[in-house]
Amino acid sequence: MLLDDIHGPEDLKKLNDHQLRKLASEIRQFIIEKTSEYGGHLASNLGVVELTIGLYLALDLPEDKIVWDVGHQAYTHKILSGRKENFDGLRQYHGMSGFPKRAESPFDCFGTGHSSTSISAGLGIAAARDIKGEHYTVVSVIGDGALTGGLAYEGLNNAAQMKKNFIIVLNDNKMSISRNVGGMSKYLNGLRSNRGYNQLKIDVGSTLMRVPGVGPQLVKRVQRAKNSLKQLLIPGMLFEDMGITYLGPIDGHNIREVERTIEEAKKIDHAVLVHVLTTKGKGYAPAEQNPAHYHGVSPFDQKTGKALSPSKESYTSVFSKTLCRLARENKKIVGITAAMPDGTGLSAFAKEFPDRFFDVGIAEQHAVTCAAGMASNGLKPVFAVYSSFLQRAYDQIVHDVCLQKLPVVFCIDRAGLVGSDGETHQGIFDYSYLTHIPHMTVMAPKNADELTAMLAFAMKYPLPISIRYPRGAAYQGLREFAAPIEHGRAELLYQGSDIALVAVGSMVSTADHIREKAVSYGHQLTLVNARFVKPIDTDMLDRLAENHTTIVTLEENVKQGGFGIQVEAYIHEHHPEVKVVTITLPDKYVEHGDVTKLRAYLGIDSDSIIERLRQEGVIPAGDPANADERNEESSAGAEPADETK
């Protein structure tokens, strides 16, 4: 295989056209094999194989710089930069990241994971280059979907002021994750239908230059009139009207055409945009036919494209079904997504209520303020969004929603540890950035049934409210406990003594495992489902302080600004004699890996927590084998609280 001999850009540049095409085929098959085994971003990476090879041929990497927007299309880049052998640990704990990562390779000049950042980052790198008197090329590769994000336009506006070379490659595959929406999508469709414009411009210029004596003067006159020509052939010409030279569209699967165009773009002494057409999922029929489904995949069978492990009902699915049911009863409910109808579960809502569904593109800030506008005029907007993506709309939550006390419902998916996508996607900060905002209520369900109940509660709540739930299968345990949802009220599950576990959201099941294990050591622990991260149930804390020496809080969030620190502050002020132990995630970014391994590594699995409680003297060390002899009655565990049976 040619691929076995490619260890860096110089090896690539030795190949002829036939070998380059063969290499592209081998890379495509390699990506399919590795994602089928480990999961990952499939369709987006299959679509940029030739584009990446063309860039590598035209550039001198890593001295030249490529900034990959989002970064979920950088697998070929990683292969060509000498990381092929690392794919056996792709997105695994301590293995290679699925996104560009500066600490991983000098070829990754800027870390990415969220969209619409590449132009701004590339401009910053180019500015540093120019200030330092260096001369390398900077290329930002951005997808057409990422151009729906406001930050991309801020970058484009600034790029127009560049006085030296800066290249933007627009990878146009008609898709971001789901099908693109909005004016930019329509504009790019228009450009695709006018592919002859740039070739016509080149042909006319070449012909006129050959006219004896007057050629150069004719070319200058045509150039002065080119705006009229552009408006005639391509209405708008958005990029050139901004002051950015436009080249294309070109075939992104023609390696030499990509190489030639980038070589031409390098000669331009200001910002230039190269419009490249690609097919998302190219070379793998299931991904070409359904690119949204194969955007991000779990391990699958290569022949059929079907997942190897059948998925259980997820929290996302529970949210989707419940919202549709509630929307049938309440015509004021509207659904909003930022280019993630499939991932957030709003696709079913969109199909059933198309007039009440809004996909705003990759524009979380706009989504929140738009929701605020809807709420101000009597609608009940539900913004479904991933935890790590909602971070980008912080100012709008503070200023446009909470300040005005508008009843927007934030359904925060992928909260807590999400696993293989790593640092850029872990949802471990939402408690912290939401709980300190006045008028915001924050809830987290212990299981699938409670998510359903919380959604119904949120639809009737007159102020801003958020519900955060984790990625993956919805927990089905503890279903016998179903006290009605009351604002700011926790749920007492098991009544024990001395030690009380107060857990929130995904950590309730972990706390229940701890309670069960403690039984074998002769300890009866109280278990409380907090339900509300804001406001905390101070009445429940007062009750626990009466007959418990220690309160242990458990949450899947960093400590600062989280649930436990609120409990700790309240108990310290009102019940200083009671010890509080906070179980949280550490103050650090969490790398990619299997969630089970990450929980153990971070010390929030049941065994790690029990060990910590022993070390702090909360639970005395004991021998579980002899525990039943010491306390036979305790083997049945604490009694369920009467109020929640």
Describe this structure in words.
By secondary structure, the chain is of the alpha/beta class. The protein is 41% helix and 16% strand. It has 28 helices and 20 strands. The strands form four sheets. A seven-stranded mixed β-sheet has the order 9-8-10-11-13-12-17, with helices on both faces. A six-stranded mixed β-sheet has the order 19-18-15-16-14-20, with helices on both faces. A five-stranded parallel β-sheet has the order 2-3-4-6-5, with helices on both faces. β3 (138-143), α7 (150-159) and β4 form a beta-alpha-beta unit. α18 runs parallel beside α20 (394-402). The chain starts with 8 loop residues before the first helix and ends in a 5-residue tail after the last strand. 49% of the residues are buried. Residues 227-236 and 623-637 have low confidence and may be disordered.
Strand order of the largest sheet: 9-8-10-11-13-12-17
Shape: elongated
Helicity, as a percent range: 40-55%
Number of strands: 20
The N- and C-terminal alpha carbons lie at a distance of 65 Å
The structural class is alpha/beta
Low-confidence stretches: 227-236, 623-637
Radius of gyration: 28 Å
How many H/I helices?
Answer: 28
How much beta, percentage-wise?
Answer: 15-25%
Describe the main β-sheet briefly: 7 strands, mixed
Mean pLDDT: 89
